[in-house]
Amino acid sequence: MAAAGVLGGVRIYYWKVSLDRASWLSNLYSKFYEAADLKRIRNILDESTPDAPKVQDMVDREDPDFTDYLNFFEFMAYLECRGQLSKRDVSALFDYYLRVLSKHKRVREYILDTTKGYGYLKKLLPRFPREGSRFSHDPASFCVRHLVSAARPGRDRRDGP
Questions:
Q1: Alpha carbons 101 and 93: distance in angstroms, whole number
Q2: What's the CA gap between 140 and 142, in Å, rounded?
Q3: DSSP letter assigned to residue 75
Q4: DSSP annotation of 49
Q5: Partner of 139 for a Cys bridge, out of 61, 96, 103, 145, CB 3.0 to 4.6 A?
Q6: Full domain range(s) for residue 95
Q7: How many domains does the chain have?
Q8: 11-28 confidence digits (pLDDT tens)
């Protein structure tokens, strides 16, 4: 009887951890895709050619919205380091935009500058190089297709994409 109680307790613990992770992901997703300040910077970085003057100027001026954008990714990298988010979670939701950060040399240099305080993001960014992105289209549609295909009957969700 005691073993059954322990087993039940372990299951409840892992269920709560899973719920916490889902909550973190939901909050990060909402903040990233709905906040106007992050959306403005996301659009500038995404729509600009590599090392465009507009991007270089934004970095050089240390636009507050730009540093907020980087702080978002620093926080996400910290959560991954602490085990609150998995590498798979980070890749599934933010692969494309981490690669967009990497496409701009001035942005990479800014992140790598130890005086700027982006230590966790600096460790995370090499996993998302600017070339070879697996996205050739809208990353949000990739995530939706991935979630739908993962939920098909007879497919183990742990199998990945």
A1: 14
A2: 5
A3: H
A4: P
A5: 96
A6: 2-159
A7: 1
A8: 776 667 677 777 767 887
